[in-house]
Automatic annotation (TrEMBL):
<protein>
    <submittedName>
        <fullName>Aminoglycoside N-acetyltransferase AAC(2')-Ie</fullName>
    </submittedName>
</protein>
<dbReference type="GO" id="GO:0016747">
    <property type="term" value="F:acyltransferase activity, transferring groups other than amino-acyl groups"/>
</dbReference>
<dbReference type="InterPro" id="IPR016181">
    <property type="entry name" value="Acyl_CoA_acyltransferase"/>
</dbReference>
<dbReference type="Pfam" id="PF00583">
    <property type="entry name" value="Acetyltransf_1"/>
</dbReference>
<dbReference type="InterPro" id="IPR000182">
    <property type="entry name" value="GNAT_dom"/>
</dbReference>
<feature type="domain" description="N-acetyltransferase">
    <location>
        <begin position="12"/>
        <end position="168"/>
    </location>
</feature>
Amino acid sequence: MDDPLSRPPQTMKIVTAHTADLDAATLREARALFYDVFEGDLDDHDWDHSLGGVHALVWEGPELVAHGSLVQRRLLHGGRALRVGYVEAVGVRADLRRNGYGAAVMTALERVVRGAYDMGALSSTEEAIGFYAARGWRLWLGRTWALTPDGPVRTEEDDGGVYVLPVTVSPDLSGDLTCDWRDGDLW
């Protein structure tokens, strides 16, 4: 039986490319889509977090309708610094949701996670939890932390919102998980 989560509409074009290989116009379109999807509830750091990795862009004709990116981060768990593909800036144009575009983005990004990282990770909005869980992403049940310039700091507000996709590791989902430092939202 076909998995509806991985069956994209037939007219879409999916492109994966590193930030360095995208022209300025495409990056502007992706940023505009990202801000539209989240209705402006973002700052410059949110977009900046999506740069420097692999982007998955979904086009319908000349229109960009979905986007997501995968950037490398180091997460600490169980005494190890894990090489993690961290999902950022996933969004689908509001009028086209639930048509396979988000699944197409995630299928492309998950392929990269499985081929290059110890595990994938992401911080989910409430609305997207079911989407990620249905794709095999697992809720991190333990405490979250950030390794800041002042040392480890708890990130309680992110507990219950971090999901992982283990590849080469079998993490203790009830253990502590620490992200590397960055400006803006840490997770």
